[in-house]
Specification:
The structure is a homodimer of 432-residue chains.
Chain A: H1 3-18, H2 22-38, H3 40-56, H4 61-67, H5 71-86, E1 94-101, E2 104-112, E3 115-119, H6 125-136, E4 140-144, H7 150-166, E5 174-177, H8 180-187, E6 195-198, H9 202-210, E7 224-228, H10 234-246, E8 255-261, H11 262-279, E9 282-285, H12 287-290, E10 296-297, H13 300-303, E11 311-317, H14 320-330, E12 335-339, H15 343-352, E13 357-362, H16 369-372, E14 379-381, E15 389-391, E16 397-408, E17 424-425
Parallel strand pairs in A: 3-4, 3-6, 4-5, 7-8, 7-12, 8-11, 9-10, 9-11, 12-13
Antiparallel strand pairs in A: 1-2, 1-17, 2-16, 14-15
Chain lengths: 432, 432
């Protein structure tokens, strides 16, 4: 089967999956959970073959760790399925109900988006998580995992597909892609794929965004800022900035640039440098920063760099507005924080920083679907439409307008004897 | 100024406009309304020059009519501004509030998208409507109107800009583009334009969609269907199908294909043909249709054609599922209706037709922002993300996550002594 066939089959399956009720979808999720348990030996065996191969190929340690899918990971995946089963059906919820006229009622009802294409790295647990999120939200899914995890992904996809079929889910709702050519092929299928979610490195995500007309949900860069305002408590500022930079440097919500108001710089920077020295973080500062603490020189290029490492760019700014201007110019509209005791300054910062997540006296590292309480995270989006910041299952949904009449026609609402619309808000669900 | 400069200036203005309060925005809208009244003579004069030129250029009658911007149109525009002023500020609404932990509160707050690019046809009233909708929702806007309306658009944009400046709106929040080259330039500015809304012909919208990486809100085709189910009331079916086809043939929500269940075809089709003959509508039918009524032959190409004329394709289908399959294959995911007395059939139709608007016993012509009670319509979208179907001001909004802590850091929530998140839903607004 070509990738176009797989996508076409997913499109067909998606319309049937959209109509599947909560019971059927939960039965499928339960069957998947049980099948993962029953097949655990074979899954672990396939995974250990992937790992052995990866070791022969000298895969880097962190990637090897991500690749591992053992009994503990299977337990985690099953627990994730249990919490998904416990969730209310997100499809078919009435978002708005309006009487247009007597007996003519309009409902805005949640529904799945359709066919989701997901491209992810080596972690096989992502395959289970994403396919089950898509199932619960009624979406068909095309998955492409890392080639290092090919054996694990194949047995997981087979296990999930077979279990779902036992609950009579339509064939083809889950398609597993295995080659790079498949990914390239997928990007051209804007007729049959509605949304692409790429998880991976900046370059990879950027490549996807640049090479498809399909909407992409995700983020390329994560150039996050902490701005230490004139009215900041120095100790709190050191704590929040240090956590934003150091708590985990290799992730998109770690701070890459620190902005410091000139009135607090002489107080704050020395204390902060002591902390950074202790954590082994290299500071690269502007000229004003270098006038206060010893540091390497930072320039234009640093403001645009996502280090993902123990390096932090530092710039002294003349005002809150200058900080905002810097963030809106060089940032990636991901997550930016202000530390200040001045409520008005905080409000102005949040009103004018054009980022998905704006924080006041809190670490940028909180920007995460689990920490936000969204449940499983679909991804983090720096898009300006549809879904922004950490995205939970909600990001896999859209709505449909459903109008129910009894032979109503538009001609009756035009001309000299036109009937009027009532446009009355109804307090009822669409199926009632 | 180049188009890139105009867009950059709009981007700058957008962050300030995002922070503008309801009072300031309403003051600007009021000033715009008053200025339109005060300048009405000059505006009408400019418009009559456009019209004179268009007459010399032999512009088609319907286009001439759309081009007209007289005293009545100015009154309409002012009334539109009044109702916009009366609306609550759509920005800063709390969509969700969650306590992550004691003193750490997360708010999901509505905000403008940023910079909207709008390309519209000859109607100058669209310029007033769209720019005021953008203002109310806090968005900067780049507008390109039809060249026939150049003089009218210029004086309207000047009037609006000057009035808004008197209410201290940031310079550059409204940019008027005047040439085709500007449109091409605009499509490349994905750094500074967040969303493009094209209003115009299918080919034009398709051209825009095919030539930009900026998200486009709109629809190219409107191939809408009416499906007459086996359990339909014949009289109601004739009425709904006739209205869907004939009430206004030149619009996107007019029906282009009629699907008829084989069990009702012999009853329904002759009655329907009588009605269509009276309305001067040509029917193009499949072989089964032609076996029942006299009609031209329809083929594959007809199922894909948006006639926008007094022509209707007709196909007899074997089942509801075959009708749905036809719609999902050939339709444009715009608006599709079923006529039936069978509730289960209607539910199945609405659950499986993958269109923005699905109607039961109502004309497809109701698919419209005004009829839906959405207020001014931004456009009709056949996208699968962000906004679907008729889109009101809501489509110009997105949200921002705002986290308020008191020095909270992520490190406290990991490791052996990790604090737990409370994830408690809060019943409060973010500014309270």
């Amino acid at each position: 089967m070509t990738i176009a066939d797989t996508a076409r089959q997913a499109r067909r399956a998606s319309t049937r999956l959209a109509a599947a009720g909560a019971e059927q979808k939960n039965a499928a999720l339960t069957a998947i959970r049980d099948a993962l348990r029953e097949n655990s030996e074979a899954i672990i065996q396939a995974n250990s073959e992937d790992i052995a191969q990866a070791q022969r190929d000298n895969l880097a340690k962190p990637l090897l760790k991500r690749l591992k899918f053992d009994a503990a990971k299977i337990d985690e995946a099953c627990a994730g399925l249990d919490s998904l089963i416990a969730l209310a059906d997100p499809v078919g919820k009435t978002l708005a109900a309006t009487e247009l006229d007597a007996g003519l009622e309009l409902y805005k009802v949640t529904c799945p988006i359709g066919v989701i294409g997901v491209i992810f790295e080596s972690r096989p647990d992502a395959l289970v998580q994403i396919s089950s999120l898509c199932l619960k939200s009624g979406n068909a899914v095309l998955l492409k995992g890392g080639s290092e995890a090919a054996r694990t992904n194949r047995i997981l996809a087979e296990t999930i597909t077979r279990a779902a079929a036992s609950a009579k889910l339509p064939d083809g709702w889950l398609g597993l892609l295995e080659t790079r050519a498949d990914v390239a092929g997928m990007l051209a299928l804007d007729e049959d794929i509605d949304l692409i979610i790429p998880r991976g490195s900046n370059e990879f995500v950027r490549h996807i965004m640049d090479n498809t007309r399909i909407p992409v949900l995700g983020h390329a860069d994560g150039i996050c800022h902490v701005y230490v305002d004139a009215a900041a408590d120095t100790e709190m500022a050191v704590k929040v900035a240090a956590d934003s930079k150091c708590q985990y440097v290799a992730v998109c919500n770690a701070a890459e640039t620190l902005l410091v108001h000139r009135d607090i710089a002489a107080d704050f920077l020395p204390a902060f440098k002591t902390r950074m020295d202790a954590r082994g973080v290299e500071l690269r500062g502007c000229a004003k920063t270098a006038g206060i603490i010893a540091c390497a020189a930072a320039g234009e290029q640093d403001w645009r760099t996502e280090y993902l490492d123990n390096i932090l760019a530092v710039r002294v700014v003349d005002s809150l507005d200058a900080a905002v201007e810097h963030i809106n110019t060089y940032g990636s509209a991901h997550t930016d924080a202000i530390v200040t005791a001045d409520r008005r300054a905080a409000m102005r910062f949040m009103d004018t920083v054009d980022s998905a997540d704006v924080f006041w006296n809190a670490s940028t590292r909180f920007s995460d679907g689990f920490r936000y309480g969204l449940g499983a995270e679909v991804g983090i989006s720096t898009n300006k439409i549809h879904a922004r910041g950490p995205v939970g299952m909600e990001g896999l949904l859209i709505y449909q307008w459903r109008l129910i009449g009894s032979g109503h026609i538009a001609a009756d609402y035009t001309g000299p004897d036109a009937k009027s619309f009532t446009h009355k808000t109804l307090q009822k669900d669409w199926e009632s």
